[in-house]
Amino acid sequence: MKIVVLDGYTENPGDLSWEGIQALGEVEIYDRTSYKEDEIIASRLQGADIAVTNKTPISKATIDACPSLKAIAVLATGYNVVDYKYAALKGIPVMNVPTYGTASVSQFSIALLLEICHHIGEHNRSVHEGKWENNEHWCYWDYPLIELENKTIGIIGFGRIGQAEGRIAKAMGMKVLACDPHPRPEGQEIATYVDLETLFASSDVISLHCNLTDENFGFINKANIAKMKDGVILINNARGQLLNEQDVAEALNSGKIAAAGLDVVSTEPVKSDNPLLKANNCIITPHISWAPKESRQRIMDITAENIKNFIDGKPSNIVNL
């Protein structure tokens, strides 16, 4: 089997090994191919039996230009970079990694929240710049400090990651609300399930862990922000397109939203004209919730297993057939 990895660098910038996949066939690894439709994608997949991609798109045109292609493995949970419906028509399974980042993504969402509450990075910077050394008082704080105990966090999307965040929040003494179309018994042990209107009205912190769908595209918008508490904190390390970014920026600038911690934006890498870059009290990190080494190792291991299972005639984690 010839296996081509189209954009391997973000998965493995050098601290992991490709040996699990290399043991399965002839492997070509490219750090980056293209994040937009380009003829180079099909060119690099010529003769390949299995394509491995993270964010390089595999379109209908690419599939048609690569007649040897038998399977596509995605180094992620999301697989919308692949025209998976057309791949299904061609009998090409698309395999993803459904569960790898529960611990890292939930941990990161809480890290964003704690940074908003304490501004540790800014206070550390001010100390190193000499402000404490030259301060007439024995301590100072440059931002309001927020205690989370007895505050209410509303988590929209209460699957594995949402529940993991809920457990952490509950351990900090927070009241946990959840909104999810599929309430689960294990979720009920962590949170009180409510409808979206109740969650908006009752939450001091709103955290997003839902999938992106046609129905919730841009649903954090002016109308729904108006239903939230004044001074709400917004956390999003799910999908950037869940936010109407202009509306969120305006709410940050007016103070309706006190602060936002975001690890995702609508177009990545972020564009210079994104209104959130100039909004008040908005922390933006470069989509790294998923990226601890332990998490990326799980991606590598599960992808290798997916490829091996396909070769052995027992395909796993197929999303389109």
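The above is record 1. Record 2 follows with the same two-line structure.
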Amino acid sequence: MFVTHLECTACGLRHEWSRLQNLCTACHKPLFAIVDLAKAGRALTREALATREKSLWRYREVLPLPASVEPVALGEGGTPLLRATKFADDVDLWIKDESLNPTQSFKARGMSVAVSMAKHLGATKLAVPSAGNAGGALAAYAARARLEAHIFMPRDTPRANIIECRELGAHVTLIDGLITDCGAEIARRKADEGWFDMSTLKEPYRIEGKKTLGYELAEQLDWKLPDVILYPTGGGTGLIGMWKAFDEMEVLGWIDRKRPRLFSVQASGCAPIVRAFEAGEKFAAEFPNAHTIASGLRVPKAIGDFLILKILRQSNGGAVAVDDQEIVRVVRDVGSTEGLFVAPEGAACFAALKSLRRAGKIDIGERVVIFNTGSGIKYLDCYAL
């Protein structure tokens, strides 16, 4: 393993990687795992990847977990990058389909790495607030690792997610409120219950699993990043992780300095990043009365808001909100044109593409990648028969 330490994303304070850690002890902001890329680059080359398994663990040298430790894995990563054939005929559109991960969402990436590290560092009980897919992923990987999983979900979480967590052996608590209320309940009880908090960006290793989205995308595009990435944003770990991956790959000499324009896509009923971006703010205020059928986007306050907003501006990208009615309509459009039953979060990105094209923010012929973060199968409650 080539991780040397943890570093605060806000104040820069250094922390040891070898003990269970949540936020920075000084300013309570998220921590990044820092990789010795000079050593990692000598151990792993781009060419060597061709012979490795199609799993996120193919990038093991830039991930945490000592080499002698077996990861908690279910076959995560290695998802297809599909060229769109009909949905948009004026851009070079590609779809990164994360629904083929274990538990049918991109959350498997983060949980595989985070649960592997939590188990290695001695955790026995894991807890997470979840709008759905993160809970399912934690339940699966905790079961695989033989650890307890305690999942707190809003009572109106899609039924499929609740059943999934329970059938995977997790302890599920339903809360009258939002994901922020679930997180607050964990914070109140975790010390007495002996839980390690696995919340988005409140531990440093889920983002390490998510950064493999960036490594995988670059590899699948022959190490040439696209012009534009549209990413559905709740907590924003995937977006932040990809940006971290791009920086790491540049240091490794795998890609050049060119970066995609990143657009954060949210639901109009819960769009704190969009509001903050348009107002020129560095942090995003909590979004009042948050509501959307895209449960993964119903995050009224993200702890990594300052990182998301910084990345959007550095990349010359932006933030777009889409209403629920349009999301539902676009699910069917994508299904009938591309043969993919995408999650509402992914559908929001397809709707955002049309909006951005109309506004002239994406040019004809540009290469665009949309991330479909999960399967529409889990959201059947959103559709009338």
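The domain at 81-104+206-382 is CATH 3.40.50.1100 (Rossmann fold).
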